[in-house]
Amino acid sequence: MRTTPGSTRSWLRAHSLVSDSILAVVLTTASLWWIVSAGDAGWLRSAPPRPADALNLILAAACTLPVALRRDRPFVLLVATCVPQAVLDALHYDPGLSEFGGLVLLYSVAAYRGLTLSAAALLVSFCSYLASALTGIITPSWTDHVVVIAVLLLCWVCGRALRLRRAYLSELVQRADRLERAREADTRAARAEERSRIARELHDVVAHHVSVMTVQAAAARKMLDTKPDVARDALTAIEEMGRTAMAEMRSIVGVLRTDGPAERGPQPGMQDLPALVEQMREAGLRTQLWIEGERRGLPPGVDLAAYRLVQEALTNSLRHAGPSARAWVTVRHEPDELSINVEDDGRGAAEESLRIGGKGHGLVGIRERVALYGGVLRIGPRTGGGFEVRAHFPLGNRPLGDSPLNHSPLNHSPLDHSPLKQSPLEDRA
User: Fold this and answer.
1) What CA–CA distance (Å, rounded) separates 309 from 315?
2) What's the whole-model pTM score?
3) Extents of the domains making up the chain
4) Cα 135 to chain centroid, rounded
5) pLDDT in tens, 266-290
6) Does the keyword Oxidoreductase apply (predicted)?
């Protein structure tokens, strides 16, 4: 039965010494009243007891008053009460209800102490009863023996059952606490992962669009006086790029809103590479796109990661390769792998070393995206100048160790573009 907080029963449970003292006083009062008023032979005695006197009352009270401290030292009190109980039997005094004090203490040992100590308490109770029976102080029949043994076992079993139930409930509470802490830890990890993903997305979007807008603004400034029409087209491209960047950032940051789920549009993917290459061309980077193999549906995560890899690589080429650089994007769709190679023929080795060892987050973000889906990434300068980003995304069950990238050197000869199938997007330069 549940107890209502603030009720008398819950208060007594919180103040166990008060409730145990009340039990001891009630049991002692009943025992002394029994001794004074009853005066019969007692339950297990064949001869009438001696007349009650002060010693009788003191010994009987010494058997029941220790119940007030039954939760603190129940085993010690159980052993201690055997002494006045033995004196009562030896002097043939009426014990009253002193035996109930021993039963309460036996129950308390079983309920609040371990198995070893509770078994020792049961043995002490058996030995006390056996000593009284063998010395002839009490003369029980075989039926009385069975009843006494059954009562002792019943008290002990009830105490052990209470202890096991309390331990079970405590374990349930601890398990609930552990699950709650684990859930909170999972929530924090999910939030941290989401923040990391949002940071990568924001970096890719901002770095790409701002780089294109910067190049377009520089071209518009140079052509403003001599070729106003070209400058006007550049400013129009900057406006469109700014709107696109704002829309993408709004959709990404929308997941951080707390007033409801964000409405997010579809993420870009490999099908948007032609539009990305077109943007690079409009920004001044002469870019070509080759797609080999049969196009097929990719997992959403791989699709987005591959697109962001090409976007970041072309953005770096636009920013670092120089005004006359060219870039090539090669995409190979294989049965169990997606291969991407982005190259440019920009500035020399010094600039390439700066691009590799820079402190920006672009290359780190690319590595994280590729590693997230079990891919292999190689980044470095090309033989003869320029820069290259090559990645393989596994799509089947082939081990990563069999990837061709694991067997090819980082610095290799330029790609031979003659056998590649060129897409309809041609170089405008």
Assistant:
1) 10
2) 0.45
3) 8-140, 270-429
4) 65
5) 678 888 899 889 888 887 888 999 9
6) no
